[in-house]
C-alpha cells in the first residue's frame, strides 16, 4: 500500500519531465540536421564565382525562383544560399564563421596559395595554418563580402576520424 501511495505521488512528476530527445533519435523521423547556410552579398555573380573557384561547389536548383538568390551544394543535401541584397546592417567577425572540412587539407592549403587567396591562422598569422586544441588543423579566410570561413582537416564524428 505504501508503494502504491508513493507511485501515485511520483507519477505526476514523472509525466511532466522534459523529453530527453526533443528532436528525435538517430533512427527517428525528426532528427535535427544541418540544412543550409545563407549569406547576403553585394554582387551575386562575384560571390558564386568565388565559392566555385575556392571549393568547386556545384550550383543546385534554386527553389525560390528569385533571380537574386542562387544555391550551391555543400554535399549531403546541404546548401549555401547566396542572396544579393542590402548588407548595410551586417557586422562580420571571425568568431562567426562557416566551417568546411576537407579530406586533403594540405592540398587545399596549396590550392589557396595557387589562387593567391590570403588566409591565416585563428590568431591572425598570415599564410599559416594552426592546430586546434583537439588536434584538428585549420585556416581562416574571408570571401569577397567579408564573411569568415574556416577550413579544417576533419573532426572526429561518431568515433571515426575524417580522411587524413
UniProtKB/TrEMBL annotation:
One of its GO terms (molecular function) is dioxygenase activity. InterPro entries: Glyas_Bleomycin-R_OHBP_Dase (IPR029068), Glyas_Fos-R_dOase_dom (IPR004360), VOC_core (IPR037523). It comes from the Bacteria. The keyword Signal applies. The keyword Lyase applies. Residues 33-154 form the VOC domain. Pfam families: Glyoxalase. Residues 1-20 form the signal peptide. Keywords: Dioxygenase, Lyase, Oxidoreductase, Signal. This is Catechol 2,3-dioxygenase-like lactoylglutathione lyase family enzyme.
Amino acid at each position: 500500500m505504501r508503494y502504491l501511495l508513493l507511485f501515485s505521488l511520483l507519477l505526476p512528476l514523472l509525466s511532466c519531465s522534459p523529453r530527453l530527445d526533443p528532436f528525435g533519435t538517430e533512427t527517428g523521423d525528426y532528427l535535427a540536421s544541418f540544412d543550409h547556410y545563407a549569406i547576403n552579398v553585394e554582387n551575386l555573380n562575384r560571390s558564386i564565382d568565388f565559392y566555385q573557384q575556392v571549393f568547386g561547389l556545384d550550383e543546385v536548383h534554386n527553389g525560390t525562383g528569385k533571380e537574386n538568390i542562387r544555391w550551391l551544394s555543400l554535399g549531403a543535401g546541404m546548401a549555401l544560399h547566396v542572396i544579393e541584397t542590402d548588407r548595410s546592417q551586417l557586422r562580420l567577425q571571425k568568431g562567426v564563421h562557416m566551417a568546411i572540412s576537407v579530406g586533403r587539407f594540405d592540398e587545399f592549403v596549396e590550392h589557396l596559395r595557387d589562387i593567391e587567396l590570403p588566409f591565416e591562422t585563428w590568431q591572425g598569422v598570415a599564410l599559416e595554418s594552426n592546430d586546434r586544441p583537439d588536434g584538428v588543423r585549420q585556416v581562416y579566410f574571408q570571401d569577397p563580402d567579408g564573411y569568415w570561413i574556416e577550413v579544417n582537416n576533419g573532426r572526429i564524428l561518431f568515433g571515426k576520424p575524417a580522411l587524413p
